[in-house]
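Quick illustration, no need to memorize.
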Amino acid sequence: MAMMKWRWKSLIAMTTIVGMTALTACGGGTQSTAGSPSGQAPVFPKKPITLIVPFAAGGGTDTTARALARTAEKYLKQPVTVVNKTGGGGSVGMTEGSNARNDGYTVTVVTVELTTLSHLGLSPITYESFKPVGMMNYEPAAITVRADSPWKTMNEFLEHAKANPGQVKLGNSGTGAIWHLAAAALEKGTGTKFNHIPFEGAAPAITALLGGHVDAVPVSPPEVKSQVESGNLRSLAVLDDKPAEVLPGVKTFKEETGKEFGYIGTWRGLGVPKETPDEIVQVLSDGFKKGMEDPEFKDFMKKNGLTIVFKDGKEFGQYMKENHEKFGKLIPELGLSNK
């Protein structure tokens, strides 16, 4: 009798072990991680993702980020919530994002200012404060004048500027801001000298141009698109190696002059704290890339005259490094560094 009880208990134990082994092999009762073998559902992301925008709600960076958040969450399978953290020319929000937990649940919109702020002495934050997820957008500068301007071509504009050093007024988006730096690069590359007039952003600079208070602006094509289409303004050239779709018929600087220089434009991308695991960064990169390829996002960008330019994490990291080095030389040359 005792022997039969022992055999019965042994049979039950063996059956339980076999059943648990089979359950584990099928993935039952367990959840894999982001680096789990193929075929198993990843843990990341398993809750909403916060997307920090370092500029105010309603601006170009904010509206672009919100459009991408809507499409990317379809592929990340979690809500992507935009939070605006403003101040310091973008440094407040980007600093907070770089100091977030390195679990992938806080992503930051990083902009070209990430490669200028440290050289301007405004913030210690640099591109090295982040691990890049990917780049999403790039806009070049375009030299734009009033429609009744005497300059019909870029060559005429430059010839006048050379003959009258310091007399041609170029309105920019603020001292040390990206369009001021773009104009300075144009100066350096063409041997001209402009009178740089700062404004609190591109919009007031364009208003000043319309009012005849400045002679030209070096801002992005989307920012002058509506006024060019209405016949109030005329763009002379795009400071890039390819034309801008939103300014049909406007040639590149090289096409107009036969020369080129180190063009400077504005860009937007995504970054996470630098210690974030690579497998999590890859999930984010894939999800946001699919969001950029989504018809809804493409339609938003086209309607707003914005250009989608994707670079993966490695390419984006190298691109930011090159920008950082370029501004590291240009900003001190302009006497703009407060270091």
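The domain at 141-257 is CATH 3.40.190.10 (D-Maltodextrin-Binding Protein; domain 2).
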